[in-house]
Amino acid sequence: MRYNTIILITIITLIVNGCYDSEEDLTVNRQFSLRNLQSKDSIIANGFSFYSFEVEVPGVRYGGSKEISLESTWGEWNNGTNSSTIQIKYNKITDSYTDTVLLKAGRVPGAFSIAVTEKSSHLGTYNFDAIPQYPSFIQILADSVQLKLSPGNTTKIRALFSNDNGFPSYNTKFRFKTQDPVSIFPRDVFIDSAETIATLQISTETRIDTVKVYGELPDLHNPQQFFADTLKIKIINE
């Protein structure tokens, strides 16, 4: 009798396993995707806008959270850096592991990429483009330099101003600012030629690895005269 019971249990197990389809436990989305929720040409390098990206990860229904890491070569995530880790929970309404992340725009236009990993597995790298901010005539070629700043130390960087067509108005004041806890001297630089170079002194009360320097033209009463030309700005190490 015992052997008959064992045989019966074995037969039932084989029948159940034979009818079971493991794919029925998988979510609707079977492949990873990172999707730009804006239109193709709407990512603008203005330094302040936020852009939405939808992350969709395959998985098993009602499973645990997915830990996803994102690294962008442009802009910043909500934590103020170019890399971020998020937890994506299963959503039974959409039957998916889906979340939306926000990327703050950088100021340098051009191609950029977002690499995505889950733990140690590389899920994919996605390429996008950031267009210049118009009708601004200022084109930022580089606004960030890699520096090792320590409290009390002073480092020099250079600001390069150039214009292929010649700058239409000389003695134009350009004012520097930064989002980092650093002091800049001088803050105001006069552009006195089509190729102006200014040396800036950077100091800080804390340790910094990357300095982002921005600029603006204060009290510009007649900006229309500049629209035909582009002032190119590049910040480099001294």
Low-confidence stretches: 221-228
Major sheet: arrangement of strands: 9-17-11-15-13
Q: Would you identify the CATH H-level superfamily of the largest domain?
A: Immunoglobulins
Give the C-alpha Rg: 27 Å
* Strand content bin: over 45%
What is the mean predicted local confidence, pLDDT? Answer: 76
- What is the CATH C level class of the largest domain, in words? Mainly Beta
Distance between the termini: 90 Å
What share of the residues lie within helices? under 10%
* H/E element sequence: HEEEEEEEEEEEEEEEEE
Structural class: mainly beta
Q: What would the keywords be for this entry?
A:
238 residues, mainly beta, Immunoglobulin-like, 2 domains, five-stranded mixed sheet, four-stranded antiparallel sheet, 8% helix, elongated
